[in-house]
Amino acid sequence: MSTMPEPAPGSRPTLEAVAARAGVSRATVSRVVNGGAGVRQALVDKVRRAVEELGYVPNHAARTLVTRRNGAVAVIIAEPEFRVFSDPFFEQQVRGISRELTAHDSQLVLLWVEGPGDYDRIGRYLGGGHVDGALAFSVHNDDELPSIIRRAQVPAVFGGRPGWPGATAGLAVPYVDCDNRGGAREAVRHLLSLGRERVAHIAGPHDQTSAMDRIDGYRDVLLDAGPGLIAQGDFTEESGARAMAELLERRPDLDAVFAANDLMASGALRVLRERGLRVPEDVALVGFDDMTSIAEATDPPLTTVRQDIEGMGRLMVRLLTRVLNAQEAEPGAGSAPGSVITPTELVRRASA
Amino acid sequence: MSTMPEPAPGSRPTLEAVAARAGVSRATVSRVVNGGAGVRQALVDKVRRAVEELGYVPNHAARTLVTRRNGAVAVIIAEPEFRVFSDPFFEQQVRGISRELTAHDSQLVLLWVEGPGDYDRIGRYLGGGHVDGALAFSVHNDDELPSIIRRAQVPAVFGGRPGWPGATAGLAVPYVDCDNRGGAREAVRHLLSLGRERVAHIAGPHDQTSAMDRIDGYRDVLLDAGPGLIAQGDFTEESGARAMAELLERRPDLDAVFAANDLMASGALRVLRERGLRVPEDVALVGFDDMTSIAEATDPPLTTVRQDIEGMGRLMVRLLTRVLNAQEAEPGAGSAPGSVITPTELVRRASA
DNA sequence: CGACGGGCAGAGAGCGCTCTCAGGCGACCG
DNA sequence: CGGTCGCCTGAGAGCGCTCTCTGCCCGTCG
């Protein structure tokens, strides 16, 4: 295991101690600890040995105090009502963030927003300079988060395009999102290419940009899709089932469905089977997200649009890092780097 | 919203600035900021006003540097293989932790362990004094975490009884767990009280103490239960279904099942219905956890053993706080506070 | 009326680190 | 062989805060 020696109980060694042991000055030890540039190799070795022997670990607070960098990033989780973490989407994104943060030697400070009244605490914390930056997920259009973050004057990156007006104008917080619209187009085109003629859509909630973008993509291809072909869900399995039932009632002749996420697609699938409709023979079905735990478990497995969720999490961190570095170079003049739209990919399985 | 004034861009006000504005010394401002004990009311007001006007927020790093307390607690998530966060159990526990931490003005630093090789990084981080304490979840018996934590000499509390030998001896890391054994006993007794005579058990994995404790509780009541009445699962829905099928094969005459968690119970329920067995008429079924999203959604709804998961999370924080305070009072002599076992409660629904 | 004690404010010394600046020494060039 | 330049190293000044210690002022008691 770790060869880290047991430190003297109670008190951890300081730079000073290492310097004394190595027979050099504090400054030299500091240089070595921070990369060792500009120090003779012999001294570097000597210092490294002393560090090793004493089990020296730099004091983070002291370092932060002078560098004004604290090596920590806040991840803000604004819980609208229910289902947050247990959302696999979330898990993957946070994991991507965690991994990338680790690679950057930064820590992840979790800020869980406890209802609307809690935004004040969050704002205070962010404004207090405890973290170098913040990552947030824009869930709803009416979310206060963007304004809180702006007021706190802390660099931030969003996961998912925020819905507030002007967010896309470039002047605001950059975001990482997948190409919802393009992915939706691809899904619908795929259904058309299979010869389907009446393609319905089960949409997500109107206050989420991802859902709206997917509707837009659907409409891009089916310019003249009647309103009867779109049903509204809320991204849950149950809502997908309900929407499917509604669609079948309105348009018993439909021969394809594009659902805005896999969970709703699986709900739709359930209803289709209950009604004795075969998938894909009678009705072809495409989902979105490629949540493999769902998409591969259904019968038949779902054809769906994949987005690299973990990659999006990592990208959020990289974007934030870039903002941070730019800001360090010339404070104030933070020309925010553009947002990133990641590509999607159609994954063909058996349902379409 | 917040009345926090826009701070002068670029530089945040210091204690010094507040002192100057209020016409007092730095020390006095510090006293006021930290509660204001021993300061004349007139001065307190004056300082408070200056703080408000300047939008002063204490510099956390500077404070930590001298107090040696950093107001942050690590939550370690050791991911065995899959399903971590998306586990609703986890979500609830982390939420409890988050809430209690907020109440204590502490931050939650998330440490996500990326495979076995990553333990070194975790150990280094914990040993580096970045956090006041650590909270971890003991998932598997062979987990390295306890030893890592001990080596790092950082106060810690476990969620769930760790499986390593001596863990319960009191000398080690305290933990919070629910009364798995007692809950299991209650479940089985309930089934017996309904007149059932052949009560089977679907057990969880052998390397988790919670699963083992539930088996023990089952055996406490059914001293002479034949081995044919116990089947092994791994806490997943699928495994519950498999175990149920196995049990029915071995003991077609069984008239009750106690599953070690709700997920397995729902799997068992599925199989029972597929075989045309009525629940509870033919076979009574009891789960564990009271994961309401599952237990209330099944048909019939599950009778199950409830544990206060969020409360356990909060308790973990309180326990840690107590260790921290004790340690501050007399360093070294950290007589670890005892672990806590929280009660369980049988929730009667329709399945038994 | 004077001495003493308690309560409250201020001065100052760090906490452990980084980073600038000056100084020293060797090397290279004239 | 001497001067100068450049590369390393060390000294020292903070970063913003807490906390002890000293000292002042007022009230109280003898």
UniProtKB/TrEMBL annotation, chains A, B:
Under the heading InterPro entries, the entry gives: HTH_LacI, LacI/GalR-like_sensor, Lambda_DNA-bd_dom_sf, Peripla_BP_I
**What PROSITE patterns does the record point to?**
HTH_LACI_2
For this UniProt record, the keywords arranged alphabetically read as follows: DNA-binding, Transcription, Transcription regulation
One Pfam entry for this protein is Peripla_BP_3
- What domain of life does the UniProt record list for this protein's source? Bacteria
Coiled coil where? none
HTH lacI-type domain mapped to chain residues: 13-67
- In the UniProt record, does the keyword Lipid biosynthesis occur? no
Q: Name one GO molecular function term.
A: DNA binding
Residue ranges of the TM segments? none
**Protein name, please?**
LacI family DNA-binding transcriptional regulator
What is the protein's species of origin? Streptomyces gobitricini
